[in-house]
Amino acid sequence: MAGRGRGRGKASMSINVEQLGFSKGEALPPPVLQPPPKYPPLDYKPISFTLTNETNYLLELKRDFAEFTRESSYNVQPIVIKKDIERYSDKYQDMITDKTSYEAHYDWTRMPAELKPAIKKRKVDNIKKVVKKKKDIDIETKLKELETKEDTQQSDTEEDGKEEGKNEEKEVDEHVEDEEEEADEEMDDGTDYYNNYFDNGEGYDDEDDNLDDGPIY
Amino acid sequence: MSLFCEKLCSVLLLEHFGPIVQSVGDDLFKHGAKSLGFIRATTGLPLPKVKEALCVLLQYGFAIHRQTEKGIQYHFLPDKVITILRYPRYMFFAKKFCGDEAEMMLEEVLKRGYETASQIIIKTFHRLEQHRSEHQSSLSMLKDKFELLVKNQFLTRSICTETMDEGPAEKIECNVPDLNMQAMAQIMQGNTDDPGDNKIYWRVNLDRFEQDLRDQIMVSAITKRVDENAGELMRQLLFLMYLRTASWADTSNPIPYSEIKEAVRKINYPLLVQYLDQYLRLLEEDSSQFLKRVGDSGGGQFSINTKEAFSQLAWTTVENIVMERFGSKAARIFRLVRSRKYVEQEQIQQLAMIPAKEAKHLTYTLLQENYLQMQELKKAGASAAPTKTFFLFYIDLNQVVRMEIEHCYHALYNTIQRREQESASNKRMIDKQLRIQTLTSNLKEHGATEEQLAEIVEMMTPSEKLQLEKVQNTIKKLGGSELQIDETLFLLTMYLHYH
């Protein structure tokens, strides 16, 4: 009974439609179901203007300033990490671009000292070179070590010794390869991966047949 | 600060200083003050590059550093970045005020952030030499120009935190003279020499230029409203204001009539002298309220009301914006609401004499776009039914101005983006034209024949030429609109400055 009064009103709207400027009989606009267009049509186009001499001059000043800063050292260039290939023009490109550190451009009495570039670059390079040299030496000594090892192995194993004797004239590198191959073979021998435990089920049927030959009474 | 302010700063930094400075600037903008280590962590850039980018920002005054207990903190100043848009205007102003050489000097300083006096003079000298050899300008003449710039406060000392110096006025007197001889030698032979002003840097006084642009706006407003003579009177009044008032005060101290008369007599405006009283009355009684009569002693005391002037200018600007965006009928409604302060819907359609439905439509459009605000008034104890409440429309100018500033940022950002896109998509053609230009100028130097030159010109096909012209026009137009938007932006920021 309480809900009876609700349905009775003339309209379900909670506000008076006339307030919005619609007369009594007028149909309300249909509900909008689509999102507004991305580029709604402009009702009023902006007035166009003509470029005066003054604005032209101002534009020139503006362009000059932008060009200057863009081409100056203030345009911070990203570090080019790796080039794909070395090009002939690289040498000349390097000559054009200013390779000096940005440190020279600033007065460091005015700038916070922590912004100064660290002068580590050369040291880093030196360290790298040293490391490289060490590695080279390492390889050579290692090869020699390997050679001596092989010599000792020759006397130990007779079968290997014959093969090795033929190859002795070849380069040291090959020795290493041979040894690796041999090691692989040994590995294969040592593990049980070599043995085929896998049953592909071929023999299964035969056995079954044998069993099903007939009942033995 | 807003999203579009950030985007605008970002795009400006990109245009001038490349992507690394841009990302460091963005980072500082987003997070406020930051130390070096944090910037590096959030930007993910290699440390040396972050340092370099920070150096650039500091050099141009786009950021400042402060020593705190947590180490050095870097602050970003977005307003200073946006002033890049205004640099050409400043240079042009210096040109008008102090001549071409002064303009070049100012340009040199702007290009480098700050610079020593000797360097500025030497660089300007070099540039003058390159530009026109027939008109020789001497170093001493340039020095005078420099002093003129300093005297007019277009340049000020750039003082860092560590070295506190005495006033700049005596400084130039003592450092420029002994610079002269040695600097000359420097230029001739390219030797390194000590010009005697090591570590005494000068930077552009942006504050001063802002004042000048402000004054220019006021003078041109009066000129447009009344006439040339009135504009000149306004200019003289502003000069007089500087003598007795702090430059950013809301209203000037009273200026006596006798002084105005004296100042006007010195300049060559016969009509203004003749009708000075009438002009003063005109300005005083004008609805724009630039000038106010504050006393009657000594023929009258006048005071310039800058604050009121800019609120009037802002109103006019906003009204014009409404007019251009929504049409004249909407502008009428807007003006009506402005004059009535708080007004009801019924009254709007009656007073504006616009049919009810249209008036409502326009009002609600303005409301939706935030040009109008709505205030609900309920009778005490009445139910919440909408019929029982009044809906009053009003304008909150501060809010509208802030919104318009936002629109300006947005428009500037879009314009710059569009311009970049135009030049990027036609890069090949623009480059080609540049190549042809350099080729022709090279060949001309080597004495090429007409035929050869014509051949090179023909490297561009007619259709390419047409296209190029179109693109260049578009880019120019976009640049021009950037300048105009910035003008509006400046006016609106001035309003906010006073309110």
Order of helices and strands of chain A: HHHHHH
Helix count of chain B equals 23
- The computed structural class of chain B is mainly alpha
Relative helix content of chain A:
40-55%
Distance between the termini of chain B: 18 Å
- Which oligomeric form is depicted? heterodimer
Return the average pLDDT of chain B rounded to an integer.
Answer: 82
CATH topology of the largest domain in chain B: Arc Repressor Mutant, subunit A
Largest sheet entry of chain B: 3 strands, antiparallel
Low-confidence stretches of chain A: 1-11, 120-131, 160-166
Distance between the termini of chain A: 92 Å
Number of domains of chain B: 5
Shape descriptor of chain B reads: globular
Low-confidence stretches of chain B: 161-178
> Considering DSSP H and I runs of 4 or more, what fraction of the residues of chain B is helical?
55-70%
The strands making up the biggest β-sheet of chain B line up spatially as: 1-3-2
* Residue share in β-strands of chain A: under 5%
Shape of chain A: flat
At the first level of CATH, the class of the largest domain in chain B is Mainly Alpha
The largest pleated sheet of chain A is described as: none
Function (chain B): DNA-dependent RNA polymerase catalyzes the transcription of DNA into RNA using the four ribonucleoside triphosphates as substrates. Specific core component of RNA polymerase III which synthesizes small RNAs, such as 5S rRNA and tRNAs.
Domain RNA polymerase III Rpc82 C -terminal (chain B): 186-313
Subcellular location (chain B): Nucleus
Pfam family, one (chain B): HTH_9
